[in-house]
Structures are given as C-alpha cells and as structure tokens.
Design a protein that fits this description.
By secondary structure, this protein is mainly α. It has 2 domains: 20-69; 71-137, no CATH class. The chain has 3 helices and 3 strands; from the N terminus they run H-H-E-E-E-H. The longest helix has 23 residues, at 43-65.
C-alpha cells in the first residue's frame, strides 16, 4: 500500500546562481578546481569516491579475512628508512615559503636551529613504512 498523502515538501527559498555556482550542467575539471568544496556534489567526483570506497573496503576485507592487520605508518618521519637517495625535508622554520632554504633559522655555529621547528629535529617525507611495520611483526 502506497499512501502519498502522508508526505509533504516545503520550499524555503531560491538558489541564486551567484551564491551556488554548481548548476545542473557539465562543468570542466578546471572550473571544479575553483570550487573545491562543491566537487563531491558532481557526478564525476561522486562516482570516483564511491569506486575508491568500494575498492578500499574490498581490499581491507580480503586481508582481514586472512589474518592481516592494517597498520598506519607515518607519512613524515625523522628516520631515514631506506638509507639511500635524497629525502624531501619537511620544516616549519621558513619564515616565508617563497624564501630559499638558506634563510632557515640558524644557531650561533651556523647550523640550522631545529629547536624552533615543529618536529624539533630534521623531518622528512617517509620513503618506506617498513621500519614501523617491523615493530608490529
């Protein structure tokens, strides 16, 4: 039994285009970059998010059923896990992002003063989560 008389709808106001720029038309990806907060409402970003969600859940279920543990490894580390190659340094000590690294705060002996940095010592984007996973193993 379907009784539609119990449902109602109230319109509270209009939706002016200047205030809500995402209309029901096709938008370019370049346009969507300017309104990042509205991107998830588009068909493209919405479907990509749903596909990524489904793939992620399927992957996690596969490994969970086989006794694996999901471990969050750090993205920023003070350890050189691989010991080879050049690492990308992360710092909060530059007074302006446009300035060169030579402008970092220095100690009296001319070395970089990491005590003023967020991490209190040199920190880098990690190249491997292996070091942290080994502790769990």
């Amino acid at each position: 039994m379907n009784d539609n008389s119990k449902h109602s709808m109230t319109i509270f106001g209009s939706c002016p285009q200047e205030k809500y720029p995402l209309s029901k038309k096709k938008h370019t990806k370049e346009f969507l970059r300017d309104i990042m907060h509205l991107r998830p409402r588009t068909n493209l970003i919405g479907i990509v998010a749903r596909i990524r969600n489904s793939l992620s859940i399927a992957t996690h279920e596969y490994f969970q059923k086989r006794g694996f543990l999901y471990v969050h490894t750090p993205m920023i580390t003070t350890s050189d896990c691989e010991g080879a190659g050049e690492m990308f340094q992360v710092t909060t000590t530059l007074p302006d992002a446009a300035l060169p690294a030579s402008e970092l705060a220095k100690t009296q002996d001319g070395k970089v003063d990491y005590t003023k940095d967020f991490f209190k010592k040199p920190a880098f984007l990690t190249v491997s989560g292996q070091l942290n996973v080994e502790n769990f193993c």
